[in-house]
Amino acid sequence: MVTPNPYRVGLIGYGLAGSVFHAPLIAGTGGLVLDTVVTANEERQAQARAEHPRVRTVATADELFARAGELDLVVIASPNRTHVPLAHTALEAGLPVVVDKPLAATAAEAEALAELADRQGLLLSPFQNRRWDNDFRTLAALVADGTLGSVQRFESRFERWRPRPKGGWRESGDPAEIGGILYDLGSHLVDQALALFGPAAAVYAEADVRRPGAEADDDTFIALTHRNGVRSHLWMSATTAQLGPRFRVLGSAAGYVKYGLDPQEAALREGLRPGPGWGREPETSWGRLGAGESPLTGGGEPVPTLPGDYPAYYTAVEQALRTGSEPPVTAREAAAALRVLEAARKSAADGCTVTLEDGAK
User: Exposed (0-12), middle (13-18) or buried (19+): which is 313, by Cβ within 10 Å?
Assistant: First the structure.
């Protein structure tokens, strides 16, 4: 059997997203090879070469695009404000693109990128890795097989206790930076809700700046009414002194409650790499399924958590490049989530409920 030539990948950005998530997952995917890393930071260049000895490093994206003919895929893991212009340049250069979330600041920008990718006949995929979290995979299976009955309410949280801002562009109040927790953690929460329960019809949100010295929202809540009648309540916060359940999902037959976070991010931060046992968690962390009792007092039955599988994203990207199939997440799915985020920002600012037909174009 002849092994096909691997696709050569250029990675723009080697901060948290680039070094912890993208580079290890690209390097560990059969059929992909990490060819070039773009970062102007000399320490990060040295880090990239130490972690991936065969990689080239360059200081600017222009240097990367000058070698566009030597590459097969560009991954954009640079600050949010650069996502749209870099993705546009890559697509115009004839290169398929993966973009870290959020794909853009607005749904209109995301749609414009999707149209450009279509015209060019190129892959464009936002990196929504949380679809491959262990708890989300488990919940999706429970919803799909009808274990919960008809789902009525979906509660989902990404909560942290970080009482002092770290600073940097992610917490900047400059709109050009696309900072704040709504576009950071909210991008994941909304994407998961739409993936499970389909389009939203109405959005209500509350957004606050709680921490002294903070510039952008750090404590935000979104309530979605999906077109199928499911209600999603989504919390994202850096100021939560007592963390709630990651998921509480209530259906007509049963409910599912899950605490704790998928272990993959922590493992990647520690320098671990996918292999046997990857993404698994101990039985003590499993969620519980039942009706009429609290899981904290022993109610319900434990549900084995499916392994988390971030590597599946880049495996699917490689297959899409090789076969011309749909990418694992599409730009238009990102645009749908951005419509919700835009509506949430408007709702929080105006103190109203926004219908997407009227208020999130």
Answer: buried
